[in-house]
Amino acid sequence: MKRRAFLRQGIASSALLFQLRVNGVEAESSTPIPLKNIVQGKGLYVGAQATKGQLSREDLGEFVANNFNMLTAGLELKWAALRPTPATFDFGGADWMVDFAAKKSMRFHGHNLCWNVSNPKWFSTVLNPSNSRRMLEEHITTVAKRYSGRVDAWDVVNEPIDLRSPRPDGLHTGPWLDMLGPEYIDIAFHAAAAADPGAIRVLNIYQVEQDQDRSDFVRRATIDHLKEWLKRGVPIQAIGLQSHIGTSLPLASESRDQFVRKVRDMGLEVMITELDVNDSHLVDTASANDRDKIVAGYYYDYLTDVVPLGKTKRITFWTVTDKFNWIDAGSSQGPGRHRPGLLDTDMRPKPVYDAVAKALEHLVST
Ligand code: G3I
Questions:
Q1: What is the pLDDT, as a whole number, of residue 16?
Q2: In 5, 89, 290, 296, which residue has its Cα 20 to 30 A from 340's Cα atom?
Q3: Contact 51 CB / ligand 1 (< 6 Å)
Q4: DSSP codes of every residue in 297-324
Q5: Whose CA is nearest to atom 35 of ligand 1?
Q6: What is the pLDDT of residue 266?
Q7: Residue 274, class by beta-carbon neighbours within 10 Å (0-12 exposed, 13-18 middle, 19+ buried)?
């Protein structure tokens, strides 16, 4: 069923279904089927991104554990959280997240081991060309070994290629590229493979999912780099399509489809690692109800288009609730202006939840 048909049929049922509040207020009709139950035994895994603070709330912790069988930590495994100083590690938040997943029988997706963004402040004064290889290898070895056997897959390098890059090769600028040149990617993947050979090694990419300006440049650069990396034995096993998509752009893209096919043809697994839908361009012009329907349609279409194309087995949702959405984070107006999540700011399921459930049902039945 495509989006138009989904919008005609699906939203009507969701209106009834979602009289239910997640944490217990009486249901008008039946309780929504937990998302993980839809895919159970079908070779599909559904994940959620959350933080320790969010999972510590009873309502959200329960919702995540009941609905998902994978977990990604939004902050706790990033360098900024793990490395208060150049010489020390703070595993408090990361251990808590990995333990939460284990207790709830969820797989754990490690995010991330190396990124040119969101690093500790001390990078700018401490990292230099002569210590950075050792720092990168030590970090990856220590972290990946600590969680060996408990992490299903690692985003080894996050966002290596960027459409704003001034470089002809499209590589994302930042401290690792500055210090080590393009070889930082080889170094990171080899260190991850040595430290935890059992975890799937993911190159987590963005800006290829819709036709933004220069998306074709990013797609071409990614394929060209992948050919080179694989030829020289860089142990990349999967591509993570982040999938922060937006309603300002059409969803269908022949160029995206070709890209996904090429990645598959290289023998790489394709994961969806950070799916959510940004409704920015509708915020001032459409009602919340209308936006919810449009956003739900984007989720439905994206999942039913891309999952079969990529033969995708792992799908992670980045924004569980509008209350903790990254698009509004830091905004003076607070959460709720954007509506990218499965739940609203009061933790009530939105039409997006229904759309995702229907898309998953469709995917496991075909
Ligand atoms: O918790 C502090 C708070 O105490 C403080 O007052 C506030 C001031 O800015 O900052 C808060 O921390 C912020 C944190 O999010 C929690 O909201 C950090 O500054 C901010 O940098 C951090 O942003 C995260 C961002 O990655 C950078 O790490 C977002 O939550 C997270 O959703 C976002 O996730 C990224 C993926 O890692 C990679 N792909 C894109 C995706 C979305 O941007």
A1: 31
A2: 5
A3: no
A4: HHHHHHHHHHHHHHT--EEEES-SBGGG
A5: 74
A6: 98
A7: buried
Choice from 326, 328, 331 to test ligand 1 binding pocket (greatest atom count within 8 A of CB): 326
User: Residue of the nearest CA to atom 10 in ligand 1?
Assistant: 330
Backbone φ/ψ region at 41: left (φ over 0), alpha (ψ -120 to 50), beta:
left
Q: What is the pLDDT of residues 176-224, one digit of tens each?
A: 999 999 999 999 999 999 999 999 999 999 999 999 999 999 999 999 9
User: Has residue 365 been placed in a domain?
Assistant: no
Q: Does the C-beta of 13 come closer than 6 Å to ligand 1?
A: no
Q: Is 109 in the pocket of ligand 1 (CB under 6 A)?
A: no
**Is the sign of the CA dihedral 25, 104, 46, 61 positive or negative?**
positive
**Strands in the chain per DSSP E:** 45-50, 70-73, 107-111, 153-158, 200-205, 238-241, 244-246, 269-278, 314-317
Task: Please report the pLDDT score of residue 32 as a whole number.
Answer: 80
Structural domain tally of the chain?
A: 1
Cα 213 to ligand 1 centre (Å): 25
Low-confidence ranges of the chain (pLDDT < 70): 1-31
Is residue 242 in contact with ligand 1, taking CB distance under 6 Å? yes
Residue 260: CATH number of its domain:
3.20.20.80
Whether residue 121 has its Cβ less than 6 Å from ligand 1:
no
Which amino acid, 349? P
The pLDDT of residue 276 is 98
* 153 closest CA partner among 212, 209, 114, 112: 112
pLDDT of residue 14: 39
pTM: 0.93
CB 182 within 8 A of CB 228: no
pLDDT for res 30: 53
> Would you say the CB of residue 74 lies under 6 angstroms from ligand 1?
yes
Domain-embedded: residue 25 = no
Amino acid at 36: K
Residue 202 inside a domain? The answer is yes
Residue 109 structural domain: 39-286+307-346
**Residue 75 CA, ligand 1 centroid: distance in Å:** 7
